[in-house]
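Priority: low. Protein: IS200/IS605 family transposase. Input follows.
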Amino acid sequence: MSPRWEPNANIRTGRHVAYNLHAHLVFVTKYRKGVFDDAMLQRCEEIMREVCAGFETELREFNGEADHVHLLVHYPPKIALSKLINSLKGVSSRYLRAEYTGRINRIGLGSVFWSRSYFAGSCGGAPLSIIRQYIEGQQRPV
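Result:
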């Protein structure tokens, strides 16, 4: 009897491709200013989930601290990661600056929300459970 093929929930398929691409992204606020509180992090996650959905990308994990956020994204090979990152940072910056103007102005961020730099790491070699544990372990401000 041949072994039964078990479907893997992480492997997604397209017309001519099967893939399992994950990236760990970290975005830092300008000058590492501690702007995020729990409510603002929650809103940032909502915005980033919407952006990811528009790119046919799944935001698997999200967490952060006062001055940065961590994302674990599952994305198709047709997506240029730099374009996704540009959109995530641009859209979230516009919405957060509009919705939290008073808080952002008090902290002194001005018209720029995110630092120009970011971290993007491939998660191909690490088990996703380890990456998830790491992101979940990032502390949200109290």
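The helical segments are 38-54, 81-99, 101-107, 128-136. The chain has one domain: 19-136.
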